[in-house]
Design a protein that fits this description.
- The complex is a heterodimer of chains A (141) and B (387).
- Chain A has 141 residues and is mainly beta.
- In chain A, a hairpin with a 4-residue loop joins strand 5 and strand 6.
- The radius of gyration of chain A is 16 Å and the shape is globular.
- Chain B is α/β, with parallel strands linked by helices and 387 residues long.
- Helix content of chain B is 33%, strand content 17%.
- Chain B has twelve helices and eleven strands.
- The radius of gyration of chain B is 19 Å and the shape is globular.
- Classes of the chains: A mainly beta (141), B alpha/beta (387).
Chain lengths: 141, 387
């Protein structure tokens, strides 16, 4: 089975994991200038405001890069696909791609967020976006 | 600080001595003992005694306490110490700290060291079992629990952008192991590999890295002595001038998780590093006779060759395949076998090879190299003969 190392929630990312519990993908938004930040930092690098709120991400994006993650020394451990998703908002986030066979994972494929409990830990995951008629771009030669 | 004074900092200091233990998979002794042994040989190589050493620089990740090392060596008085963050990304930063301390008068001779039992003790390549450092919540729960995985997520975009396969990376590994094969100091001495060997080694992170793309886990210690260039004539062994030394970091950059800057097929930190090094030394890529390039994993060589201007974007695979990084090539790279072939002493052993090449004492000695770059993407230096 897939083994998940649970997050060790900290003051600066508690909002995110609280959002996950409600099946929401939350992005940190500067209260003063509106700049979105992920991963979060406690001060806006543009305007230095320390007040911030959260914004629900649209939950859509594209696979920017990906790997197949296996345990290096325990082959029975189930592999999963780790993806770096470029969100529609222009930010990138690391998560997993599910319900896509390993040999069909492609850069730039459209994905959407969903929430799954894996090894007892509720995590944001991404799946192929439905209704997009995606044609894998293939690797350039 | 003005441009002129930055150049002076670099040009005014030398690496006066180098030392190391053997590189192995089981040292059989403590990390402190490895540090002390390496330091002792570096001090002797510089023609100094422990009483001449008044500064120390190591990595924040090094477990060896400065005061215990000081006692072990019998150094009577220390006036300066510092540590550099982010592991191998700061390997060359140690020399920058030491050079600045000497140039600024904080210390006369600085011992730079790194020693660990990274194979027989805590293995860097094994998965993290829990989230500990700040910020890792974004990665570990999703499976990015080893350096091979965290770096591969960036490398994959580079492969996609230029249509590379793992076989392209294998051509670098073959060169590194060929260089190691004729270096008695290398763990993989006398054990070259073929591209077939590489392609039949097991996947570590599919479809990016195979076993033979990964640096070793090693036990060992290395040390160097940095001092003022005006002492060069008095030294028993040839001194090597630090012609340039720089650190380079960018906003939205990262080391283990460098996913957030614009184009992951580029290495903007290494581009910034190259600009600084060339400006300080008044040189360009064509002036570099050989390069020691940090490679925890083989793709890092590709990204650095392009970012440092040795070839164009996307050209590293062809540059390597055409033999340019061989001992007889246009730009010999990792003449000791690199971190894949010699050992992984967190990149600091690459600086020792740069010194040996300038001195003329390398196992795979090049013909009178005058200018060597040693770089690790986020930090690096240029070495030249002191006189």
């Amino acid at each position: 089975m897939t083994r998940v190392i649970p997050p060790n929630v900290e003051p600066d990312d508690e909002y995110f994991w609280d959002g996950v519990k409600q099946h929401r993908l939350l992005l940190q938004a500067c209260a003063a200038c509106g700049t979105l930040r992920h991963p979060p930092v406690p001060m806006c690098g543009r305007c230095h405001a320390t007040d911030w709120g959260v914004q629900d991400a649209e939950g859509t994006g594209y696979v920017h890069s990906w790997i197949i993650s296996r345990h290096p020394s325990e082959p029975d451990d189930q592999a999963r696909v780790v993806v770096l998703v470029e969100l529609t908002e222009g930010l990138r986030i690391v998560a997993n791609l599910i319900d896509v066979p390993f040999d069909q994972v492609r850069n730039e494929m459209p994905v959407e967020v969903c929430f799954r409990e894996i090894d007892g830990v509720l995590l944001p995951q991404f799946r192929a976006r439905s209704g997009e008629g995606f044609t894998p771009p293939g690797r350039p030669t | 600080m003005s441009r002129a004074s930055r150049v002076a900092v670099a040009g005014s200091t030398i690496i006066a001595g180098i030392g190391q233990t053997e590189f192995s998979k089981y040292s059989g002794r403590s990390e402190l003992q490895l540090a002390a042994e390496a330091a002792c040989s570096a001090i002797a190589d510089a023609g100094m005694t422990p009483a001449d050493i008044d500064g120390m620089v190591t990595f924040t990740l090094d477990t060896n306490d400065e005061l215990l090392l000081m006692r072990s060596l019998g150094i009577p008085e220390l006036r300066y110490w510092s540590r550099t963050p982010h592991g191998g990304a700061g390997a060359h930063t140690t020399i920058q700290h030491a050079a600045l301390a000497v140039h600024g008068g904080a210390a006369k001779a600085v011992l730079v060291y790194r020693a660990f039992n990274e194979r027989s003790g805590r293995r860097f390549g094994q998965p993290n079992a829990r989230v500990t450092p700040p910020g890792w919540n974004w990665y570990l729960p999703f499976g990015l629990d080893t350096p091979a995985k965290t770096y591969s997520l960036g490398f994959q975009r580079y492969m996609f952008r230029y249509g590379l396969t793992n076989e392209d990376f294998g051509r670098y590994a073959v060169v590194a192991r060929r260089h190691a094969a004729t270096n008695p100091n290398a763990w993989f001495h006398d054990r070259p590999i073929t591209l077939d060997d590489h392609q039949s080694s097991r996947w570590i992170v599919e479809p990016i890295l195979r076993l033979l793309d990964c640096c070793q886990e090693s036990d060992g210690g290395v040390a160097m002595i940095v001092t003022s260039a005006d002492r060069a004539p008095d030294l028993p062994n040839r001194a090597v001038r630090v012609a340039a030394v720089a650190d380079a970091h960018i906003n939205e950059g990262n080391v283990m998780f460098n996913y957030y800057h614009g184009d992951l097929a580029e290495f903007p930190e290494a581009q910034a590093l190259g600009r600084q090094l060339y400006e300080q030394a008044g040189l360009g890529p064509d002036d570099i006779d050989a390069a020691m390039l940090y490679e925890n994993f083989s793709p890092v060589v590709f990204l650095q060759l392009e970012a440092l201007g040795f070839c164009g974007p996307g050209e590293a695979a062809a540059f390597i395949a055409e033999g340019n990084i061989d001992l007889t090539g246009k730009l010999p790279v990792n003449t000791h076998g690199g971190l894949l072939g010699e050992a992984y002493i967190h990149g600091l052993n690459n600086i020792l090879e740069g010194v040996r090449q300038i001195r003329g004492t390398a196992a795979n000695q090049l013909s009178n190299p005058e200018t060597i770059m040693v770089a690790g993407g986020h930090s690096g230096l240029i070495l030249q003969p002191a006189s």
